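dumping this here so i dont lose it
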């Protein structure tokens, strides 16, 4: 049953990527900007990838660095899609039993969302191509998942529409880290945007004190 749900989720994600790519190309991709708590959004996208991670016996750690909530002005649904693509990619391209780290970091006037793994890494010659449309690199999904080659290009376009930046740091045999940086917003997000949740732990690669989503052994 889990495999059926996972396959249907993957198919929905592929269809969404194709539709969104078309909308972005045609200029019909509109943003509904409002205050969003990036820390809460991070928890939501991690939860969405939990089932696939469990099937691959992976552990996703999530942590937050800095005081207060991580408020940004964003289109909640579009930004969720971008961050979901990054977490899903980490699950998709990491081997069975690997660990994935999701971190939200508050800076003076910026908020960062980072997804890192201890997967195969990306070679220097392929790094410049990572965010290109329809770009499929030498690394392949490790669980038979599908790929359109559109996910990361959509991430880049959505982030840039939010006046943000996205980049990747990687080393072959060590792993990769994808980072999204957005302007911090003044004020607080409304209750309609999210529910208050407990504060997250503050280590990048947490031990026992960070929230983790773990698969059964």
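and the seq i came up w/
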């Amino acid at each position: 049953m889990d495999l059926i749900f996972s396959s249907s989720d993957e198919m929905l994600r592929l269809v969404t990527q194709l539709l969104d790519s078309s909308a972005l190309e045609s200029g019909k991709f509109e943003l509904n900007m409002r205050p969003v708590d990036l820390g809460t959004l991070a928890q939501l996208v991690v939860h969405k990838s939990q089932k696939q991670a469990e099937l691959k016996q992976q552990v996703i750690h999530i942590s937050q660095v800095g005081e207060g909530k991580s408020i940004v002005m964003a289109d909640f649904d579009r930004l969720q899609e971008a961050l979901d693509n990054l977490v899903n990619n980490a699950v998709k391209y990491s081997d069975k039993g690997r660990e994935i780290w999701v971190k939200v970091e508050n800076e003076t006037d910026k908020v960062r969302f980072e997804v890192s793994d201890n997967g195969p890494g990306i070679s220097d010659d392929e790094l410049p191509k990572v965010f290109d449309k329809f770009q499929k690199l030498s690394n392949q999904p490790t669980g038979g998942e599908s790929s359109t080659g559109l996910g990361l290009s959509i991430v880049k376009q959505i982030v840039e529409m939010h006046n943000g930046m996205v980049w990747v740091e990687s080393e072959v045999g060590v792993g990769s880290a994808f980072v999204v940086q957005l302007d911090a917003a003044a004020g607080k997000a409304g209750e309609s945007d999210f529910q208050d949740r407990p504060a997250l732990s503050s280590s990048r690669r947490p031990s026992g004190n960070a929230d983790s989503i773990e698969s059964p052994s």
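Helices lie at 2-26, 38-48, 50-55, 76-93, 151-161.
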